[in-house]
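Teaching assistant here, posting this on the class forum so everyone can see the example we discussed in section. The complex has two components, and the goal was to see what a joint structure prediction looks like when all of them are supplied at once.
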Amino acid sequence: MNPLSGIFALAVQTYPGSGTAPLFPPSASTISGEVDALYWFLIGVSVFFSALICALVIGFSVRFRRRPGVHATPIEGSLPLELLWTIVPLGIAMVIFIWGAKVYFRTVKVPSNAMQIEVTGKQWMWKVQHPTGQREINDLHVPVGVPIKLRMISEDVIHSYFIPAFRIKRDVVPGRYSTAWFEATEPGEYHLFCAEYCGTKHSQMIGRVYALDPVDYQRWLSGTVAGETPKQAGEKLFASLRCDTCHNTQSGARGPDLAGLWGSEVALRSGGTVRFDADYVRESILNPAAKIVKGYEPLMPSYSGQVSEEQLLALIAHLESLSAPQGAKDRP
Amino acid sequence: MTAPSASAAPSFAPRDNYLTADYSWRSWLLTVDHKRIGILYLLSVTGFFFLGGLFAVLLRLELATPQGDLVQAETYNKLFTMHGLVMIFFFLVPSIPGVLGNFFVPIMIGAKDMAFPRLNLLSWYVYMIGGLVSFLAIITGGVDTGWTFYAPYSSTYANSNVALTAVGVFITGFSSILTGLNIIVTVHKMRAPGMTWFRMPLFVWAHYATSVIMILGTPVLAITILLLALERLFHIGIFDPKLGGDPVLFQHLFWFYSHPAVYIMILPAMGVISELVAAFSRKRIFGYSFVAFSSLAIAVLGFLVWGHHMFLSGQSVYAGVVFSVLSFLVAIPSAVKVFNWSATLYKGSVQLSTPMMYVIGFLGLFTIGGLTGLFLACLGLDVHVHDTYFVVAHFHYIMVGGAVMAFLGGLHYWWPKMFGKMYPEALGKFSAVVVFIGFNLTFFPQFLLGYLGMPRRYHAYPEEFGVLNVLSSAGASILGIGYLLPMAYLLWSLRYGPEAEQNPWGAKGLEWEKAPTPPPTFNFDATPIVTQEAYAYADDLPPEESRTQARLV
């Protein structure tokens, strides 16, 4: 935790009827300290340059105020000064750029051992399913000290999943999966906001994130009705939708066998390859003709309108569980 | 060539000027005089400013308490949408180019009028038609998509007057294009003899750069809005994934115009600041050519940074990196300008008249606005502050602290020339201070709110954000008074203000030195011949002083 944020936490004011009014958000994930460090550096830069400009403008305005008989001195400019105030800000900007890009790469590169939670956004709620099958709406329970990967999609308009205490945010877009990850460090209860304007009840598309000690998380899991895990639901759907009629291991099957493909590059009938990932599986279920695997005919009917976003996530979880090739990692 | 008119003017008085040439309604509504068209714009943008301001008052009243208790959520969403639409498309974009640019670009380059006077009038009518269509959309139910019209919410899900509003914005865009075209041609073809490119005032350079953006950017906005309307009305799949479209494509197209549009709003403001700094420190702008070329650099680079609005939208990580570095680069020309303006004051003869008070306010607020832009260009930090009140505070520092301060400063500077009347100076200074204090109290707390995590466009919010929101609402009420005061005393001055001299500030420039106050219909008694650079304040120095002081440099 940044020492300065501690000072801000002390500067708590009391406001009648509303308890405390903090000036700085809690810092509760592995990334939050890094984001805060950037923030304080930028505040330092901003304070320095604002003070410099203020001092110059006010100082000159007073020192060189109009006086009778005193004329302005004609000065055209100065190349060394122009170079100075081009190059120095440019250098500082590049430092901020590189530092910011580094932190950003940390926020998009998901650790390979992350626990995956499926998130579906819709007007105006967040639906969550844990790998062990527990479902939540608007709340999110996570263990502290475990990297959590969120695979997210929207059923309707664009939303954005925002947990200020963890300094993470990611747009949740219809038609494609987006990913965010975090690792909580401090047990506690935190805000969850929708940050992308999504219609009438945008400001009510909020919830709570509960970061729990692993023991408490297990207790919470066991105290909650688990239902089917996404994998189990996906396996059942795969059977009930008769996917296995064509996608099977028999020679001469009408569709490719889907086991073992996850994360690999698949050759296409039209030439080129596609990565066998969540977005490709989703597209192939809803719009099968878009990218046909090499050696197969465009025979598959569209399942658009027959499977919900949550069922799609289940099918994807099932296919993902049919073994990923060794060494394949999830891309951001 | 005229004699120095300060001595010549009284012998003509009272004389005809563009205001007294004709008093009929027809003469105003069918005028092709760029100055009268400027006045028409002044009336319209003022109307839209107070309409947008009214929406802001209601927003801040709602946000004074955490609960959504003053208006319903739907109404609140419409209010912030219409506040943004009105302020951006009908106030900020046309304000300085339409009013001050229209009035002074031709005079500053020694022209009788714009290159295409009728097109100029058409541009005002197109703007008004667009404005009235949007106004119709507002009074028949309003629109709730946010001014950004993000799809698929706007194209498929919103139940408000999206299509009609879009038509209004679409039409108004053509007004921008016509104004830009007119200014470019005017600057190229209408300069007086001797008015070379590097003798042009920086105000003209800034308008030239702005016009280039208007012409290149606005058609993309028109196309985007058209595509949106096609999807909304005829369900042609472009942006909605359910119809086979891509919602992120909308954001690319929208920001391809709307980020450069930020520079459409701020570049003319920078032009105003250059004029005012020179006039009130009696000096040529420090590093004239650096200030001129930084406008062009902003115009070019400004087209390459739109993706910094989309770091979290799902665009590729590497695209994000490129847009981030370009966004840092576009900050540099703005920094160069601020340093040059500050350096101009050095060894100047600085007079803190009302317009200069606004300049000092601008320099402070624009600096903060620009620096906080770095927070948003910075990838790792943008993840946290994107779509929070931090962004709201940042762009208000640029748009209100920058563009509106400059507009007010420019209006006070040129008011005597436009109407031949002086306003009460003490009241002017007082209002500038009120605006500055009110502005900071309104928007500074929003930076803190943003980092705390309060998302923008929230009708209700958690109680812990209450104190900062109360401060912000309190500041807004002070800011409102700060805007009403100039409205009152400037109107008062039209009737009761003392007569203005030809050049009350002792400023350089054809509009002060050669054009009578107020100018006649064709601006000058004879075409001026330019023999000096812009801001030739050194020419007024006694010869011996000029020499001795020049050695001190």
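For the discussion questions: Chain A has three domains: 3-63+78-108, 115-222, 230-321. Chain A touches chain B through 93 residues (CB under 8 Å). Think about how each of these relates to the inputs above.
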